[in-house]
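Priority: medium. Attachment 1 of 2:
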């Protein structure tokens, strides 16, 4: 089922999530299905559980936007174990509809995670995938992409959102990750 996206400045988005301890449960499978559905419905490349108000360390990524099923990634309790190089590029977030900003990230990352059956695995990502992995794992730690920008950019975005909140123009439904 498509779930509502939690928008900034909801406090849950800056709260670290707790680890998943039970695997292969109906609840976990439903959560993952809902996350893919919600991500595709909003045109995102990744979605973290707190973005739909579930404070668990679960994230899904699909850099093909639903075009290639082999690109679907499910990460439970993920941690970044290594990062190399840097890349600078445009990044968005479904919790900040309409905002795209330059963000510096590592070029490649190694990640350790668990799948929905509870088996641990390692993966590597480069370029866009590395960017998505860093963005989504940040979400699970309560870190939003505005934290990865200069304080000037961050304040500008906060100011614009405060203004839209006052005028009632701050709503979900933009594109991005
Ligand atoms: Ni995001």
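Attachment 2 of 2:
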């Amino acid at each position: 089922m498509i779930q509502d996206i939690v928008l900034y400045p909801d406090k849950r988005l800056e709260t670290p999530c707790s680890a998943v301890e039970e695997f292969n449960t109906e609840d976990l499978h439903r959560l993952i299905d809902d996350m893919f559905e919600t991500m595709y419905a909003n045109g995102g490349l990744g979605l973290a559980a707190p973005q739909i108000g579930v404070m668990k360390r679960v994230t899904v990524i699909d850099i093909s936007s639903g075009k290639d099923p082999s690109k679907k990634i499910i990460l439970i309790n993920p941690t970044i174990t290594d990062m190399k190089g840097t890349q600078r590029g445009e990044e968005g977030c479904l919790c900040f509809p309409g905002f795209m900003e330059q963000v510096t990230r590592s070029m490649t990352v190694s990640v350790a995670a668990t799948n929905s059956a509870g088996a641990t695995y390692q993966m590597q990502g480069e370029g866009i995938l590395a960017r998505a992995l860093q963005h989504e794992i940040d979400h699970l730690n309560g870190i939003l992409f505005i934290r990865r920008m200069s304080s000037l950019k961050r304040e500008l975005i906060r100011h614009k959102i405060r203004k839209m909140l006052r005028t009632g123009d701050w709503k979900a439904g933009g594109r991005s990750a």
